[in-house]
UniProtKB/TrEMBL annotation:
PANTHER family: ALPHA/BETA-HYDROLASES SUPERFAMILY PROTEIN (PTHR47909), GPI INOSITOL-DEACYLASE (PTHR47909:SF2). This is Uncharacterized protein. GO terms for cellular component: chloroplast. It comes from the Eukaryota.
Length: 76
């Protein structure tokens, strides 16, 4: 979630792993979220019409990497 760090999900990931569910957590640190401030200079932010891209491209890339890793783990 917004502002969270990968380690915030460690307990959930451990619980899932104990139940046999492989888990991969996207690599995100709290300072990474400061990148979202780039949207503040876009007038669309203030109008409530800002689109997720390109402001969240960094996050979407991290999610894509985590999904790729999960696929590799699942499919060998």
């Amino acid at each position: 979630g917004l502002g969270n760090n990968s380690s915030d999900y460690q307990q959930l990931a451990s619980s899932l792993e104990e139940k046999g569910v492989r888990t991969v957590v996207a690599k995100v640190s709290r300072p990474d979220w400061l990148r979202n401030a780039a949207g503040l200079v876009d007038g669309n932010y203030w109008k409530g019409t800002l689109r997720p891209r390109p402001v969240l491209d960094w996050y979407l890339k991290r999610i894509e990497e985590a999904v790729s890793t999960a696929n590799l783990l699942a499919n060998g």
